[in-house]
Amino acid sequence: MTVARTIDPDRIGFDPARLARIDEHFGRYVDDGKLAGWQVVVTRRGEIAHASTYGQRDVEAGTPVEPDTLWRIYSMTKPITSVAAMMLWEEGRFELTDPISRWLPEFADVRVYDKGSLLKPYTVPATEPIRVWHLLTHTAGLTYGFAQTTLVDGLYRAAGYDLWVPPGQDLAAASVGLAKLPLLFQPGTGWNYSVATDVLGRLVEVVSGQSLDRFFGERILRPLGMPDTRWWVEEGDAKRLAALYTPHPATGRLIRADGIGRAALTEPLFRSGGGGLISTAADYHRFTQMLLRGGELDGVRLLSPRTVRFMTRNHLPGGGDLASFEPAGFAETVLDGIGFGLGFAVVQDPVPARVPSSVGEYYWGGLASTAFWVDPVEEVTALLFTQLMPSSTYPLRSQLRQLVYSALVD
After folding, report:
1. Is the entire prediction scored with pTM above 0.70?
2. d(CA 117, CA 134)
3. Which segments constitute the Beta-lactamase-related domain (predicted)?
């Protein structure tokens, strides 16, 4: 096990012996064959209190997790796309209430599923246009084909929108294709985890006049000093990429998921703003520190503090929590007491979820069980990287919160 820190944790309110419980606990997942390996980083007030690695990034090759291991972060791409959109919003390029059809005309006449079957669905006109804030909050009525919980999900899969988009589609073509499918509900009336952030990425392209990868590189990744965050891994870095695994349905033992995992080794035509990035702990640490510091890091400002605070308030209709919208089959986060902002889940009340955290903490995770959170009250950030899909396999995220907050003793 590799453990590192930049300062004495006692100086910033952490008990080192209690922090060590993180490694003991998650080490058992590896020892029991449930995870191949993992990496954890915990900070407070901008200082790294605890950073550790354990296990293998590639079990079959026998290579260990190292500090510079590359991880598929999947939906942890979404907050970066949301930041990109809000950078343009700060420039006055659009209002959050603007219909997205102003830039994406394919969404001008969307329809909403009402009843019927996969073979013969019946739809009705949308009574409200999809607006920019609907994309940022997942209240647009879009969905994911791989969710497999609603009939509309089935329509997505039938059209080729499952875990990926149909072959040969880039972000522009995917946006056109998705606009032809019916919405799950009228825009702004519900919440459903979805391809909304991919559509948001296309909006960033059209509004900025740049491809999403170029915008990310020029406006976010290079200015923040995130050199290892990329859309695919070239041959020279392939050995640094962690292998992707899934649990055996009967035994729970790890099965290598190269069918999906190998996609990270090829340049994608579709630059997914909702789940396309690969990154390292060091890079994503810089992204979370920028957020914790109110949009600025090392003299580089991406957003104003007030914009970050606005993004991390609850924007759900009626001020409800995710549980009140009953999103079927969703497993990226607990639902009770959790709101949703402009790109992040936001803790409204930690008590209903029975997981320690602060009111106002915001977070997200990815398909392969990666996760992060930013706690502006305690000035804590935490990062978890591993490569096990689906993310609902084990309660890694809630357990990490238990261990981190119980180690905070000042």
Report:
1. yes
2. 26
3. 23-397
